[in-house]
Amino acid sequence: MNESRIEPRAITMADWKSGPDDLSPGCDITSMANVEGAGGIGLYFMAPGKQTNSFSMQASDDGTADEYYGMCHEFYYVLVGEFTMYWGEDITKVQKGTANKVLLKAGDLGYWTPGWKYSVKNTGKVPGTFFWGITRPSVATKRRAVSEAPQWLKARPI
Amino acid sequence: MNESRIEPRAIGMGAWKTGPDTIVPGAEITNISNVEGVWGLGLYFMPPGIKTTVFSMQDVDDGTAEEYYGPCHEFYYLLVGEATMYWGEDASKIRAGTANKVLLKAGDLGYWTPGWKYAVKNTGKVPVTWLWGLTVPTGEAKCRTSSELQWLKTKNA
What we know:
heterodimer, A: mainly beta, Jelly Rolls, globular, B: mainly beta, 5-stranded mixed beta sheet, 2 helices, 8% helix
């Protein structure tokens, strides 16, 4: 038997890392766990009208999105509220909300496939919460993150 | 740009596969989606007092568990109710509820690591619901599974 195995466990609220998402004002992010070899999972909380910064899961980083994750798969399982995911190749349209879009209501799963840029907005009337999971990109991927909220998001009226 | 990429989408209840878990009377299982090469995702529903069969996520199949998944990682995110996961190496202790155990309440995440056998019981007073995710097993694991895990069989074919 492999003695390097890890014991199963409950990961409760006291173990989670949680706080404001500094890159997306008005949003809170919780990281629950990293599942070895598969990716991360957690919760996300957004006030009505709030939108995240833009992130790219394309094969290469063209520099137009606020963040570059690489070729990941991501899912959101919506627990409370309604969200709209804007997606496409043109970052201006994604940020403005004129790109393709997918509406998610409580109980829906959103599956965000690699090859696109994304930004999600709470388009409901109540604070929204979703459970997220994101896979790891290939080891060769150079991820890029901004250090603070982008200007287009700071300047946006609610 | 890679034209084989798939468009993002919402997977609403109308697209889910759901029904009784035929090997756990009283329990219902929903398969929501497969995240390519990484996860199966779904929901599980179980009345109070019901317990699943024993499933193994060990490196090798010793034949003592009802199902063998191979060395997978699994999580449960408890949406409603309470559940107790029994775990260890001895399937008889897991069935009897005398093995190691982890209690989960609504809002808790259970992380089920490879290398052990498991069975979960609704130890609360209300029907329990959780969101589950199960990774594709590594290596050459040959699954013995119910229809719940057909996606794993496909991945390993």
